[in-house]
Amino acid sequence: MNKQTEVFMKPTPQGNSSAWAEVGQSHPHESAILHVLGEATYTDDIPEAQGTLHAALGMSQKAHARIRSINFDAVRSAPGVVAVFTEADIPGTNDCGPILHDDPILAKDLVEYVGQPIFAVVADSHDNARRAVRKVVIDYEELPAILTPQAAHAAKSYVLPPMHLARGNAQQAFETAAHRVSGQLYVGGQEQFYLEGQISYAIPKEQNGMLVLCSTQHPTEMQHVVAHALGVHSHNIVVECRRMGGGFGGKESQSALWAAVASIAAAKLKRPVKLRADRDDDMMVTGKRHCFYYDYEVGYDDAGRIVAAKVDMVSRAGFSADLSAPVATRAVCHFDNTYYLSDVDIKASCGKTNTQSNTAFRGFGGPQGAIAIEYIVDEIARNLGRDPLDIRKLNFYGRNDEEGRNVTQYGQKIVDNVIHELVAELEASSEYRQRRAAIETFNAGSPVLKKGLALTPVKFGIAFNVTHFNQAGALVHVYTDGSVLVNHGGTEMGQGINTKVAQVVAHELGIPLELVRVSATDTSKVANTSATAASTGADLNGKAAQDAAHTIRRRLAEFFAKLHGGDAKAVVFAAGAVHLGEHSMAFGDLAQKAYLSRVQLWSDGFYATPGLHWDPKTMTGRPFSYFAYGASVSEVVVDTFTGEWKLLRADALYDAGQSLNPALDIGQVEGAFIQGMGWLTTEELWWNKDGKLMTHAPSTYKIPGVSDCPQDFRVKLFKNRNVEDSIHRSKAVGEPPLLLPFSVFFAIRDAIASVGGKRFNPPLNAPATSEAILKSVDAVRAMARAA
């Protein structure tokens, strides 16, 4: 692979020394060697305690039905079975919903999707438990099922009331618009497909205590759910997570079911119980990215500037609310993407369907909101015979001093807009205009293979929509040998949060990174944590850890100044040593002396993001701390006979602010790009007429492979510095890059449009599978013949 990357190794250091820094360096992931050697400990690798039992879930085979009766005789007599548990065995609350109490741990009388857990079997082995659950006999009374968001919308079937945001007077603006474009769009969902499936291991402790080792992005939520299910206080429950083998949002709220079932069984049997999901069962039980259906209408002038926009979007929420409300809220807030929309009317509904309860997925509604406006801009450009890039640039938010065109539809003023400069840089570096001309020449002489090119921008808001989630805590311990242990509320899922937090602490204390270790996330150490989600992991936990480390540094500085005389503010911590004038001492030696003088060498830290507020009734406020920007250019070739396609080259430029770790950030951009490309092209979720998910295994659900990556993949970080006081002026890099591969989808659409001389807008839904591409090609050919 000819991959060109650019890493800025030494941004201007901040903090203790202008000549030394641990932040801004491209350090490897703290567990990279363990990953490669297979020595990294995941939940299923933890040595099992004596007497450990294994659980499996018995799942509904109907999309919507009442349970008349259940016969467990064959289950209980199966080899190795120790116990069978139903909702009647739950001592506390039968609920694992993160917001609304509408999501039972185990169904009672009513099942609402194929795959819904009804009971749990506990046996002496994982295989025996899985075999036993299949022996149950259930008598169902089937009920009508709603399976699509369109059907839910038509039936006014929602998991919560619809949302509405309006600014200006869209109807009046439509009446004066020179042109209008309207239509429908469907964008499918996406399976998180983490390499490590859902798993929890519950170990009973004395006095009704429970230790839950869980692969989760939200240990505190798991603590709450388990405590409620067992009918005990939160202090009885300890949830620990050293690392996950991927999360992508699928382990934010939906790890709760697995933690609860394992804990209920362990509490009842007084023995450790592990619940590990088989891949098929995992995909059948858990929710995915919300698919969206859109009805849109946009008015625009002769130049292509949008003057009015109206969209009605409905998501497939599934059978319960889960996180659908904040997902829809973020979709509404990201409908604008990088474009100023003066007069808008945006509606969003969360359709109640008899399918898995959809949940968080990297981007959390942002991609679903932004792709709609990108589709519309693409249509405007083709209607006017213009290059889509020109229409995009025309509609960009104004620069920061351009009053009136720098306020979002929800009322937040944009003060850090760099999209103009970023896109200009990428347009030049990718040779967009030259390649556009070369592709036109190629397509003119190629009747079957057609090339396409697209440049798409990204603006993504960083913070939780729910203001109180924007807080974090951390503990920092300095030992007498100068080594440091850090614990924080974030969870490591491969993204490198522990590496970045360790860098922040090392930098703050002026010591080499190898002296800092981050321990497993643990609810008994840092309490009341937020989920590692919304791209806030490093922002929140890095600030909290910095706060704790700063307190210790201040104490050590005061002690060192007391030893040698001088001002504590003049003490410098750098490169593993402490300096004050002519006096120097190794950090470890100072820690030892400070201990002997009874100086406290540990501290807690806390951070709450300032300036955030949101009114869910009016859907206005300042929900985001700042925005991350980016853009990408993709070039594809499409076989118009088979629908096959290939990504030939991708250029991505991403605004990570003043990056904490450029190597990790570039890796995140690359991974997000390929994951987002999969969502928009190959990853198709399909339910049959009976509501059963048929794409529930790698054999039927296609995530991108190595061969799907472009041979020419150029990823760079945009040189920038966050205007907000984020951790070392960096910017988040978890979710925003997932929007970059919009360019792949629109490059495919560009290639299809060339079949009709780019006179017609190809009808193309996502994912743009080979079948969908062929259907779109046929539609364009039909339009060309009719014209």
Automatic annotation (TrEMBL):
Keywords: Oxidoreductase. The keyword Oxidoreductase applies. Residues 1-24 are annotated as: Disordered. SMART domains: Ald_Xan_dh_C. InterPro entries: Ald_Oxase/Xan_DH_a/b (IPR000674), Ald_Oxase/Xan_DH_a/b_sf (IPR036856), Ald_Oxase/xanthine_DH-like (IPR016208), AldOxase/xan_DH_MoCoBD1 (IPR008274), AldOxase/xan_DH_MoCoBD2 (IPR046867), AldOxase/xan_DH_Mopterin-bd_sf (IPR037165), Xanthine_DH_Mopterin-bd_su (IPR014309). The keyword Aminoacyl-tRNA synthetase does not apply. It is an enzyme of class 1 (oxidoreductase). GO terms for molecular function: xanthine dehydrogenase activity. Residues 37-144 form the Aldehyde oxidase/xanthine dehydrogenase a/b hammerhead domain. Its EC number is 1.17.1.4. It holds the Pfam family Ald_Xan_dh_C. NCBIfam families: xanthine_xdhB (TIGR02965). This is Xanthine dehydrogenase molybdopterin binding subunit.
